[in-house]
Amino acid sequence: MVKKMYRNNILNILLVVTAILFILSFVLLPIIDSSSHWYVVTSGSMEPVLKTGDVLYISKVDADKIKAGEIITFYSNDRKITITHRCIEVLHQDNKTFFRTKGDANENNVTFLVPQNALVGRVPNAKIFGHAIYAKIPRLGYLSYFIHTKIGFFLLILLPGYLLIGMETYNIFNILQEDKKDEKKSDSL
């Protein structure tokens, strides 16, 4: 009985530590590397490479290091939202750098001319067997959206917290009961 409770406690602790590390990775990585951030893809303009709901790791980079073909994130004209598109051309005019961008899924020739001061960064990638693998976590953004709703916050934050507290309270209660039984046995001897 004690071994089973000990094993359950170890599993609970490992589960909590894993969850905390997973959550902290999203919080600490931008703090450790303040030049990088996480962004959620909100449209299908870059499909099939980047899908709606993907979480992207955006690495800050100097404008002069951006090359045609790279995927960049930039602020919209009103600076209220970020957009992630492929840079199709780098232009230099009057000592300023501009990026012509286009979403991969946009079949029409709608492009954006992005000034360098609107650049947030680029999506890092690695070439593996000739294919670009981008720094993203597929579909995790949906969880982020859901967790910001009242029901999502309750189901994914509060309920697991209450269950964890309840399980630990139950385990402590059982341990105390076992201790009382052991004391009674030793007193009667």
Kindly summarize this structure in a few lines.
The chain is an alpha+beta fold and 189 residues long.
Helical/strand content category: alpha+beta
Assigned CATH architecture of the domain at 35-138: Ribbon
Q: In what range is the share of β-strand residues?
A: 25-35%
Q: Biggest β-sheet, characterized?
A: 5 strands, antiparallel
Q: What is the overall number of helices?
A: 3
Q: What is the mean pLDDT?
A: 86
Q: What is the fold named in CATH at topology level of the domain at 35-138?
A: Umud Fragment, subunit A
Termini Cα gap:
22 Å
Query: According to CATH, what is the class of the domain at 35-138?
Result: Mainly Beta
List low-pLDDT spans: none
Order of helices and strands: HEEEEEEEEEEHH
- Anisotropy-based shape: elongated
For CATH, the homologous superfamily of the domain at 35-138 is named as: Umud Fragment, subunit A
Q: Mind telling me the C-alpha Rg?
A: 25 Å
Number of E-type strands: 10
Strands of the widest sheet, in order across it, are 6-5-4-3-7
Textual characterization of the structure:
The protein is an alpha+beta fold. Helix content is 41%, strand content 28%. The protein contains three helices and ten strands, in the order αββββββββββαα. A five-stranded antiparallel beta sheet has the order 6-5-4-3-7, with no helix packed on it. The protein has a three-stranded antiparallel beta sheet with strand order 1-2-10. Strands 8-9 form a two-stranded antiparallel sheet. A hairpin with a 6-residue loop joins strand 3 and strand 4. Helix 1 (2-32) runs antiparallel to helix 3 (150-188) and helix 2 packs across helix 3 (150-188).
